[in-house]
Amino acid sequence: MNKAKFFKKAFLTFFLWLFFVPQSLAWHDETHAAISKAAGYKKWFNSAGADMIKLKAGEIEYFNHFVNNPPETVITEKMVFEMVKRYNKILDAGHLYGAIIASLRDYFQYIEKGKYGEYHLAFCAHYIGDLSQPLHNTMRNKFNEKYHVKIDNTVNDEVLENIPNIKIYPISLESEHDLAKEIARIANISTKKGYQLERENRLLTKDEAYEQISHSASLFKAVLKYIEKQVGQKK
Question: Architecture of 21-234 per CATH?
Answer without folding.
Answer: Orthogonal Bundle (1.10)
